[in-house]
Amino acid sequence: MNRLFRAVLRLFAAPRVNMREDYEKVRRLQRQLASLPTPRYQALDWKIMSDDGDHEIPVRVFGPKERRSDDVLVFFHGGGWVTGDIESYTPACIAMAELTGRAVISVDYRLAPEHPFPAGFEDCYRATRLLLENPRRAGVVDADKIVLVGDSAGGNLAAAVSLHLHERGHRVPSRQILLYPVTHWDHDPETSPFASVRSLGDDYRLTNTEVQDYMDLYVPDPGQRRDRLVAPLVATDLSNQPSTLVITAELDLLRDEGEAYGQALTDAGNDVRIHRVDGALHGFITLPRFARPLREAYEVINAFLDGAPATEEPT
Fold first, then answer.
1. Residue 19: what pLDDT?
2. What is the pLDDT of residue 34?
3. pLDDT digits (tens, 9 = 90+) for 3-24
4. For the chain, what is the mean pLDDT?
5. Dihedral, CA atoms, 141, 68, 65, 305, nearest 10 degrees?
């Protein structure tokens, strides 16, 4: 990459906030941005009761103007398990429904630090299991039409949910789409096994410090961070997982661990496709629809959902 292009990209890097102290400010900013006008869309809000019955899990169903498939995409948003919600991800979910021609169910799981691990994971697991066991709740007859989708921390949650469903002997989704997912517990450039953590953790959209702050808030107990439900890449059994599409961003410190997870799933005998979006930054799924990384990602997503044969991808 030439120096000029690198300098321009740095202009779009995330503000260097202290997430441990400023996460509430970030949430307020996200809510303010979410209050801006959005395209008209079809949506339905409802709630799922938690397993223990002590709280409700809000979900919002987005319908495309023109539905081209019976698939339903169950979406877990990003935000480091600390920020993000149904409202802040509404524009991204509208785009997802319209660009895939499929209904999208966005799950508003509990956030850290008020609700540390495993709270958010448990909400996603509960919602997924309920929909797989009662697919008519998702508006489909066949549970194979239910696809898990998550970006960043949401990709982490989707992977962890699929792992745990198999561990518990429950039905596993037929497909999952992991967008630049968190799959490992260590993002310290001094100790991380991944080159992208060392080379891309200072200058771009997401930093090493941010990810470590998120992890500290989500999993306060360092001893729990190597749990496979926090770091799916360390799981010892990755067999019988959904057919998986992993999409990574070239300029994202999470790039290598996402691709490593895709390779680990492949080595365990699963059907996996890995696609790297060149020149893309972390979080590109929330970009405007005209953005090249978003358009490229949805071309790959639609091919995957439509069952097109896999093509060779650089890994």
1. 78
2. 74
3. 555 554 554 454 556 778 889 8
4. 91
5. 90
269 burial (CB, 10 Å; 0-12 / 13-18 / 19+) is exposed
CB contact at 8 A, 38 and 91: yes
The span from the CA of 75 to the CA of 61, in Å, is: 10
Pick from 88-92, 161-165, 225-229: least confident: 88-92
- Start-to-end C-alpha separation, the chain: 18
pLDDT higher than threshold 80 for residue 36: no
What's the gap between Cα 85 and its chain centre?
13
Per the CB < 8 A criterion, the answer to whether 292 and 285 are in contact is no
List the Cα angle 23/26/31 in 5-degree steps.
130
Are the C-beta atoms of 100 and 69 separated by less than 8 Å?
yes
In the chain, DSSP assigns E strands to 42-49, 56-63, 72-76, 103-107, 146-151, 175-179, 243-249, 272-277
Tokens coding 94: 């509208």
